[in-house]
What we know:
By secondary structure, the protein is α+β, with helices and mostly antiparallel strands. Among the domains are: about 35-190, Sandwich (Jelly Rolls); about 195-265 and about 465-583, Maltose phosphorylase, domain 3. It contains 16 helices and 16 strands. It comes from Alistipes indistinctus YIT 12060.
Amino acid sequence: MKPILLSLLLLFAVPVCAALPPVFPAEAVEKSQADLRTTTYLSPVRVMWIQNEELVEGADHLLAKGKGQMINAPYPHCVMTSREGRRPSLLLDFGREIQGGVQIVTAGITGHKPARVRVRLGESASEAMCEITPESGATNDHAMRDYVMYLPWYGVSETGNSGFRFVRIDLLEDDVVVPVQEIRAKFTYRDIPYLGSFRSSDTRLDSIWMTGAYTVHLNMQDYLWDGIKRDRLVWMGDAHPELCTMLAVFGDNEVMKKTLDQARDQTPLPGWMNGICAYSLWWALIHHDYYMYTGDLDYLREQQSYMNALFDMAAGMVDGQGHEHMTGAGRFLDWPTSRDRKAVDAGLHALLLMTFDAGIRMAGALGDTALAAKCSSAAERMRKVTPDYATTKQSAALAALAGLVPARQVNEEVLKKGGVEGFSTFYGYYMLQAKAKAGDYAGAIDNIDTYWGAMLDLGATTFWEDFDIKWLDNAARIDELVPEGKVDVHRSYGDFCYKGFRHSFCHGWASGPTAWLSEHVLGISIVEPGCKAVRVRPHLGGLQWAEGTFPTPYGVISVRHERQGDGTVKSKISAPKGVKIVR
Length: 583
C-alpha cells in the first residue's frame, strides 16, 4: 500500500475509532482525584563509604547533576565490578531527608544481562547499613526500604517509596561489570510556596523554625501523614500540631480537608477515630482552629450532624460531678505518658473540657443553640473537678490550657523543673503553649533551643517521632557512620512501637516550635474567623529582633520587631486589605 493511501485511511478512520465503545463501561471506571504532588530528582552530595574500593571506579561521577537519560556515547561512569567472590557496595548521602524513591541509570552491563542489586534506604546513615532483624528494629512495615531489584543492561530504573536521606547499593552477583551513569533520589512533594517565614537574631531558632516547616511539608502527601517512612497514616491527634504548622507556613491546603473528611467518613459513631477517644476530640479541635483560620462556615456546616452526635456522645460520658468516663477505646495522650494512668486521666479530662469550649464557639458560629447548651452544661460540670495534673508535663500543660489550674502555677510547679527533661516531640508543643500562657516566653524559647536544637546537633534535617535529651550523652551524629565507642542514637533508643531503626526520623507531630515561634515571637494570632482580625503582640524573650511573614486568606502579613535601647520593642507591620490588625 502506498504511503499516501495509508495516511488517508488512517485519517478517515479516526471518527470510526472514536465511536467505538470503551473497553470498560464508563460507570465502571472510578475517577481518581488529581495528584497535586510533583517529582524532582536530586543527585547525591557525597559518597560516604565504599566496600571493596578497588572494585569501584569513578564513584565521584555520581555527584554530578544528572538528567535521568542513558547516553550511548563516551560518558563518565561509576563502574562497579564483582570479582572472585568479592562484591562492591556504595553508601550515598543526599544531603537531607526526602520522601520518594531511587532512580538508577545503567549503561552497558556485561553480558547484555540485567544485574541484581540490593537497595537500602535510611533516615540515618546507620539505618542504611543495617540488617532487618528483631534486634535492630529495622522493618519494611509501612514502606519498602530494604529490597532487591534488577538493573537493565542499558536503561533507567526507578524504585522505592519511603522516607530517607541515605542509600546503600550492593552488587549481589559475581563476575559482572555494572557501569552506573547516575544514581538519583526521586523526590515527591507538593510544590507549594513557603508563604510564612521566620528570621531572628538567633540563627539556631531560624533553623528550628524551618526544620519544623520542612518536616510537615514532607508529610503533606496524598493525605496529611504523620511519618514518611513509618506511620504513613492519618492520625487525628498528631494532625493538630501539623495543622498549626501548615497554616503558619503554607496557609490553607486541600490536604487538610481530605484528611479530616477521611477520618470522619471512616469512623461511624459511636466509634472513636483511630480507636482512641482523644483523637476524636482532636478532630473537633482541628475543625475549630481550621474554621478560625479559613472562616469557611459552609465547610463547618458539613460537619454539624457528625459533630452534634460526637458531642452528644462525649457529654453523656461526663457524670453529674463532672468526671469524664470516656470508654470503648484506648485512653491515650502520647507514648511517653501511656504507662501513667493518672497522667492520662488528668490529660483527657482537660482535653475534653477544651473540646467542649471549642464546641461552644463553633455552635455560636453555626447558630446551633442546642449544641451550645449541651457543650456549656458539660463544661460547667467539668470545671468543678481539678484532676491530679502534676504527674507529667503533658497532663500539666493540658490542665493549664484548659484553665483548670493557673498557668503560672503549672509552670512553676511542673514545667520548669528539669528543663526539657520529660518533654516529648508531640506534646512538647502544648508544654510551650502552656509556658506562653504563663508569660514564660524566654523559658519556652530556651526549651526550643535546647530540645529541638539537640536533634539538629545530631545531624537531623527533620524532627523525630520521639527524643529524650538524655540521648545526647556520647551520641554519634546520624549523618555519619558511628565511630567506635560512640552510641548509635537510631539503633539504641526508642520505645513502644518505635524501637531502634523502626523509629521515624520525620514525624509531623514534632513540628510545634514552628507554629509557636510564629504565634508568640512574631506575635501573630487570629482574633476573628477567616483572619479578618489578627492580633500582633510580639514576645522576643532574649532576642534582639525577629521578623517574618504569616499567610492569611487575604494575603501575607509581614512584621519586624526590634528591641530598643530602653528595652521596649518597636514593630513594623504590613497587612493585606481585609485584615484588621489588633495590638
